[in-house]
Design brief:
The complex is a heterodimer.
Chain A (H helix, E strand, L loop, with lengths): L3 E4 L2 E4 L5 E7 L6 E7 L5 E8 L5 E2 L8 E7 L2 E6 L8 E9 L6 E4 L3 E5 L1
Parallel strand pairs in A: 2-11
Antiparallel strand pairs in A: 1-3, 3-8, 4-5, 4-9, 5-6, 7-8, 9-10, 9-11
Chain B lengths: L2 E3 L4 E5 L4 E3 L2 E3 L5 E7 L5 E7 L5 E3 L5 E5 L4 E6 L8 E8 L8 E3 L3 E6 L1
Parallel strand pairs in B: 2-12
Antiparallel strand pairs in B: 1-4, 3-9, 5-6, 5-10, 7-8, 8-9, 10-11, 10-12
Classes of the chains: A mainly beta, B mainly beta.
Chain lengths: 117, 115
């Protein structure tokens, strides 16, 4: 089936530095990818929607200059957390939308645990 | 706007007993409904989905769900749980077209399995 590979699975960074998270679709082309943030014991909150070759659409309250999303190819989307702070520590998950018709659905990466110290 | 409610935050069930997780949705058109399972520190795995047709949907790992339009519900069931079913379960509704194909998740239900 359709697989999205997300890396790294865990990252620890210092305050003020930037961290890049990658999501690759391994056996299909992902026109649309979604980035979610999940706090402990909470649900997934959509941060932004990225479409290949165009600017990402951010959800209300998400700082686009802080969470940079690039979707330059049909198989790769990246989320860069710039000037990270401890409050950015969270679990980030990407998702790709699959096909249409009976194949409609979404596949998820395995997530990235970001800890900012 | 679409929304999903999972009324039960935690459910504890004995191994071998049946399990039912509730999900209620709000959406103006025919919804695309999903159930996902998440193990700690992992991504989401699709259990099953409903778009149209038979309202009783069979999924992986012995799970099934029933779509009831009159009740705006899509409850997940399993006749006999295994210890490995302990996880977080999320119901989600998807919207095509103008809503940008976004998924909206419920708050999740954490399932604990007693031996």
């Amino acid at each position: 089936g359709a697989v999205v590979s997300q890396h790294p699975s865990r990252v620890i960074c210092k305050s003020g530095t930037s961290v890049k998270i990658e999501c690759r679709s391994l056996d299909f082309q992902a026109t649309t990818m979604f980035w979610y943030r999940q706090f402990p014991k909470q649900s997934l909150m959509l941060m932004a929607t990225s479409n290949e070759g165009s600017k990402a659409t951010y959800e209300q309250g998400v700082e686009k200059d802080k969470f940079l999303i690039n979707h330059a190819s049909l198989t790769l989307s990246t989320l860069t957390v710039t000037s990270a702070h401890p409050e950015d520590s969270s679990f980030y998950i990407c998702s790709a939308r699959l096909g249409g018709g009976d194949n409609y659905g979404y596949t998820f990466g395995s997530g990235t645990r970001l800890t900012v110290v | 706007a679409q929304s999903v409610t999972q009324p039960d935050i935690h459910i504890t069930v004995s191994e071998g007993a049946s399990l039912e997780l509730r999900c209620n949705y709000s959406y103006g058109a025919t919804p695309y409904l999903f159930w996902y399972v998440q193990s700690p520190g992992q991504g989401l795995q699709l259990l099953l989905k409903y778009f149209s047709g038979d309202t009783l949907v069979q999924g992986i790992k012995g799970f099934e769900a029933e779509f009831k339009r009159s009740q705006s519900s899509f409850n997940l069931r399993k006749p006999s749980v295994h210890w490995s079913d302990a996880a977080e379960y999320f119901c989600a509704v998807g919207a095509m077209g103008a809503a940008g194909n976004k998924l909206t998740f419920g708050g999740g239900t954490r399932v604990l399995v007693k031996p």
